[in-house]
Amino acid sequence: RDYACSPDVLRASDLARRARGRKMISSAQGRVYDLGRMFQRLNQRFFDGQLERPTLTWSQRRTRTILGHHDSVHETIVISKTLDSEEVPEWFVEYILYHEMLHIKHPARLINGRRYYHTKAFRTDEQRYPRFNEAQLWLDQIVRERRTLRARAA
pLDDT tens digit string along 61-103? Predict the structure, then answer.
């Protein structure tokens, strides 16, 4: 386990994944929302423009549980196509994108062979989003409506 989680092995694994894998990329411009514009606004407001823009894309299909994810190997943020709807408020889509942007600022930490993605520093920054509490209520509502075990930003 120590060997498998060593920095050299993890780095080699990421490089192999980058070389053999690929992401299905559509566009940052959705039917309703533009992830590129949102990223720019959030980057200026919360990160002083310091985050390098990754590839931004909507998912290929509508998803039921994972509303967004950041892939550090492919330098990509994918947001669920389910959110590209007039029925979903813009601030909620921004919250999901903001959460994924925090993964760029706070990369996963390896502690005792385990990767931690949502550290205390991550959670503290996440709560800086002005409508954080309201976003959590929306996530809870999505869970109830979809009757899934959980809806989350990854």
Answer: 777 778 999 999 989 999 999 999 999 999 999 999 999 999 9
Name the token pair of 111: 């502690």
Instruction: Report domain extents, the chain.
Output: 7-153
Two tokens at 3? 């060997």
Whole-structure pTM value = 0.80
CATH number corresponding to 7-153: 3.30.2010.10
pLDDT tens per residue across span 34-57: 999 999 999 999 999 999 999 999
